[in-house]
Amino acid sequence: MKKVRIITIDGGGVKGIITTMILKALEEKIQRRTKNKESKLVDFVDFFAGTGSGGIITCALLSPNDQLPSKPKFSADEVNNFFHEFCNKAYSKSIFKKIQTLGGLIDNKDFRKGLDTFFREQFADKKLSQLIKPCLITAYDLDHRRAIFLNQHNAKITKAKDFLIKDVAIASSATPPYFQPANIHSDIGISYPLIDGAVFANNPAMCAYAETRKMYFENAKNPSSKDMYLLSLGTGKPEKSINFHDAKNFGISQWTRPLLSIMMSGNAETVSHQLKWVFDANKNKNGFQRINPDLKNASSNFDDSHKSNLEALRETANDYISKNETTFNDIVENLVPIEKALE
């Protein structure tokens, strides 16, 4: 039986470049397998989930084409270009340093307007309900102190859970302490003050698994792990250790960067460990795959958009892609069964 195919995308700021390059490589392989240059990755996936930069990438992947609303607006290559442009706009002003000062806070407000303009240019006034596939994007509700899941399938049912795609992207980019919280409104005017869901689920794969368990798909009703193929995409494993003798003398400000990195990477790998056991227990050992390359020479900093680091991130992705052709072929075979390839 054909499995429910799921792709989840971690948060990670600029490190999302690794993810978009991997998605681009997968789409190119799908086009070769189907012998069709018009084939898109999203055509062969049933459900997406994203956190932080992964949420922004999900919005771009699933944004509808103006002429053919059931088809994606962007190819994976164009999503890669989109995300590079986002990084240049979002992180080029060294916001982390500026927000420690009053002047930085003022700059940050002006920056938010610029990012809103960028997302409006990309997504216009299209809504979450118009995304072309079911999906889940994580956020954290400051008013009610709870996790919230912005998803396409619920948005299609009720306007109370529908939002502009640009606002979903803004909420997904609202990572403290880098950016202000995002106050977005549903289609019926309900206000939601949100921050990036990375604070509780930097790896949204378990959230996606739980969500899809209660859904109906063409080939499965309330699927369990035995009925799924889940590809979890990380944004790179930091190789640099945190020196104990340095850490024991850290103050509050010195802990900010390493603590965020520890929380994000620790959460991501814990979720992967849990899901591996869930899939193994249902005798679907190959149904869960995790891609998370070593960062090598690239920085693990969320906001390092220096030209040299962006190039190092691209090198990390290209190196992983070139050295793991068998893995990528396996992924494509899971996403595009032979009968689909021959259609």
Characterization of this structure:
Strands 1, 2, 3, 4, 5, 6, 9 and 10 form an eight-stranded mixed β-sheet that branches. Strands 7-8 form a two-stranded antiparallel ribbon. It has 14 helices and ten strands. Helices cover 47% and strands 14% of the residues. It is globular and about 55 Å long. About 3% of the residues have low confidence. The protein has 343 residues and is α/β, with parallel strands linked by helices.
Q: Which features would summarize this protein structure in a list?
A:
8-stranded mixed β-sheet, 343 residues, alpha/beta, 14% strand, 47% helix, globular
What is this structure, in a nutshell?
Helices cover 47% and strands 14% of the residues. The chain has 14 helices and 10 strands. The chain is globular and about 55 Å long.
